[in-house]
Specification:
This protein has one domain: Arc Repressor Mutant, subunit A (Orthogonal Bundle). The protein is built from six helices and four strands, in the order ααβααβαββα. A hairpin with a 2-residue loop joins strand 3 and strand 4. The chain is globular and about 35 Å long.
Amino acid sequence: MVNHNTSEDNVSRAALFYGQGGSSAESRGTFQRIYDVVKQIPRGKVASYGQVAKLAGNARWARVVGYALHANNDPEHVPCYRVVTKDGCVSKAFAFGGENEQVRLLKEDGVEFQDGHVVMEKYQWETPWIM
């Protein structure tokens, strides 16, 4: 069987499944919880998808973090470019201009790269309360 789903289909399904929006505190939406975390990543620092997932409430949401960042409609206030893999790799599918744009934005923040990766030991956002 051939899968004809696009990444946008997956993002839409994830948004529905993980409760984008909602009025009560409990159902205000996983995506919004992820955006709230990403807004806190300081300039000059990065966080991994898993790190954001843990801070948003579920360590198993790393892939959901990716969906949420791809669906981000407010990149000016939700700096999704500051989220990278645990190894410091940028996203090949960076939604706002590709991986080169993500690298440019991170370098503009003062983040350094070595062998094409963010130097995580130096630039990973320290969140010892969740590690």
